[in-house]
Structures are given as structure tokens and as C-alpha cells.
Amino acid sequence: MKNVDVIVIGAGAAGLFCAAQAAKRGRNVAVLDHAKRIGGKILMSGGGRCNFTNMYTSHENFLCGNPHFTKSALSRYSQWDFIGLVAEYGIAYHEKTLGQLFCDDSAKDILNMLLAECKKAGASVCQQCEILSIEKLDAGFLLHTSQGEYQCESLVVATGGLSIPKLGASPFGYQIAEQFGLKVKPTRAGLVPFTLHEQDKKILSELSGISLDASANCNNVSFNENILFTHRGLSGPAVLQVSSFWQSGQTVEFDLYPNGDLLAQLQKAQHNQPDIQLSTALGQIYPKRYVLAVLPYFNVANKPLKQYQGKQLEQVAEAFHQWQLKPNGTEGYRTAEVTLGGVDTNELSSKTMEAKKVSGLYFIGEVMDVTGWLGGYNFQWAWSSGWVAGQVV
Ligand code: FDA
């Protein structure tokens, strides 16, 4: 039997960061993970460069049953605190766009920093350790694992979400919550590409590789970034963002000329070059291959501009400004960056992440019903929630 003060289940972003904080306070901490290779999601994140935070992080960048829940942790351990730590380790980084900070070199730098923080503070990390069962004791918890029994005062669950199962994702954190009588909100894939109905796919899959500026709108939220046509459907930042707000069966509206007035452009072209084809005029704005495929898809005839009456030109502009698409579904957890839903935040203290009903039991990171937008917000939640728990476990 191993006796420690704190056990953290899950050696991902939140778990490692929390373990280092607790160990710095002199607590004896063990992190247990069932995976062969730890920090898989960190290494894969941001295309291998880890978008580790966002300079503009605020509670408004998160989906959560309680929109105020994230405020306390984000203010006590903010993006600036984490940026300070990254700078302390001499890790070079840059802003890619919209406040998103990426490593210049490799996501490995962030994982190595977390492991160095654990090592320096004396937290141990144990890989390939299956947790077989958890029992509540009068004071603390008893864990039966594939590497023997552990007893601890505080138990931190940092098992993450369900996306990318091959990296060790499991529903274990939700099962622990349920074992202790805590509510878990239904889960679904977020920040995930859309798949298409056959009639859309037939035409749009031929546009694979084309990326356009667009704004994607659904359920009163709107994201103005790129969209990307793929051979499976639709991806790109604006699509990933809006996918977290989309419910099955709903329509997404895309403005494919989000920063201008297409009607005014076409009217000007009609006046200046009345003999050119509509496709030629649109080809000055969009890739030619895209224009030729979508005109028939939008049921728009291609003829010289002078042949369009005012109303018809309005209809052309409307087809591009208000493209209505009903996705067939999403690519699911196989490619999703995050899991929406999870341990209900009403069950947890927003100051410490401790379960209100079970003293000594904590949930941090993505396992709970807190999901960030695309852009470094999910890691910031891992750091902020891990840090606040690390001060008290
Ligand atoms: P995380 O998933 O990191 O860690 C959970 C750990 O628990 C894993 O090590 C797992 O093995 C372990 N575990 C699970 N079940 C267990 C069990 N039964 N027993 C023991 N251990 C168990 N975010 C962002 O802000 N910027 C970005 O650039 C990206 N990029 C990105 C790319 C891709 C491809 C994905 C899939 C995700 C991202 N994300 C992201 C999201 C980000 O990776 C994610 O939100 C955090 O890693 C969540 O941190 P956690 O520590 O909560 O879970």
C-alpha cells in the first residue's frame, strides 16, 4: 500500500499542472495515467506547436451550463501567469492570429516544461497504471490499481474528454462522478468538422483543399474566420468554432463575403464591364474552380452581367451572403478537439473545483462541463482549473 497526500488521475495538461502546484506546497503527489505515452494531446495540439493560451481569454470564450463558473479560476491564474511561466523556461512563442499563442519550435517544449515542474516539486508520474476501483474512506480514498493499492487524502480527476480515443481518452472521469452521485451533462463532440448529405457532398467534395474567408452563424453566434472544403465535408476554424454551438438537424448559415457588400461589387462590375460573364466577375473574388462548381449548386445561371436584372443580381448576392447548409453530422470524437458537456459545474466549487457533496474529490480540465472556443482557451482552462485545485488539495 502506497500512502500519498494527493492522487491525480490523468497526466494530461490539467493533471500535470495541478500536481506540480500541489507538490510545490509540500504535498506528496502521485499522478497516475493508463496511457503508455503521456501528454499525447499536448504533443499533437496546434499542429505540433501547441496553441497554449490566448491573450484575450475571458469567461465569454467558454461554453458551460453556468456562464459565470470559469470567472474565478481564470482571474486567479490567468493567461498572463502561464505566459510568464513559458517565458521563465525560455520557450520561444509567437501570436499566430486573434491572440493565439503558439510555440515557435514544438509542443514538446510545453510538455517538457510541465514534466520539469513536476520533477522539481517532487510529484511522481506513473504511466500504464489502470485504476481498477475507487473507495471512499472516512478521510480520503483507497484506489486499487494495476500497480498496487494507493491511499490518499485528496483525489483529483483530470481524465479529460472523449476525443481521440487512440491517445488514451476514456469516460472514466464521468464514471467516477456518477459513482459519487454527481450529475454529468450529456457529452458530444465539439470543435469538429461537419459531414455533408450526399447531394451536397457530390458537389462540394470536389472543392477539397479550397479555403475561403467566411462567417459561420448558428444559434445566434457567429465566427468570422476561414472555412475549408475537404473530401469528407467542411472544416476550417469558422466551422470548428460553430460546430460547438450546432445541434443535430440544424442549419448553419454562411456569409461567403463577410467583409463586404457583394451586390455593390456586382453592380459596379455590371456598370464597368457589362459583357463579362458572372463567373468572371466572381472569379475576381473567389477561386475560379469554386465559382464554376457553386453557380449550378446555388441554381444561378452564368451569363453576361448585362443580362441580369436588378432583382436577379440581388438573388446572386444573397446566395453567397446567406448560404444555408444543413450538415449531415460531424466527424465525431475521432477528430474532435474537445468534448462538450461533462461533470456538471453546479456540483463543483468554482474556487477550488472540489465536489460540493464529496470532500476531498476534485475535477479539473476538460472532464467537466467547460469547453473553450478554438484558439488556446481549452489549455488555459486546464492551467487555471489545475492551478486553483493545486492550491488546496
Ligand atoms: P487531457 O486529455 O490532456 O489528459 C487526460 C489524461 O487522462 C490523458 O493522459 C489520459 O491518458 C488520461 N486518462 C484518461 N482516462 C484514464 C483512465 N481511465 N485512467 C487513467 N488515466 C486516464 N486546446 C488548446 O487550447 N490549444 C490547442 O492547440 C489544442 N489543440 C488540440 C488538438 C487536438 C488534435 C486535440 C484532440 C485537442 C486539442 N486541444 C487544444 C484541446 C486540449 O488538448 C484539451 O482541451 C486539453 O488537453 C485538456 O486537458 P486535460 O488535462 O483535461 O485532458
TrEMBL record:
Enzyme Commission code(s) on record: 1.14.13.-
Domain of life, per lineage: Bacteria
Keyword Transcription: no
Domain RsdA/BaiN/AoA(So)-like Rossmann fold-like intervals: 5-391
Keywords: FAD, Flavoprotein, Oxidoreductase
Residue ranges annotated for the RsdA/BaiN/AoA(So)-like insert domain, each copy included: 188-338
Classification via Pfam families: HI0933_like, HI0933_like_1st
Cofactor(s), by name: FAD
Any one Gene Ontology molecular-function term assigned to this protein's record: oxidoreductase activity
SUPFAM superfamilies in the cross-refs: FAD/NAD(P)-binding domain, HI0933 insert domain-like
PANTHER family, per the entry: OS12G0638800 PROTEIN
Protein's name in the database: NAD(P)/FAD-dependent oxidoreductase
Organism: Paraglaciecola aquimarina
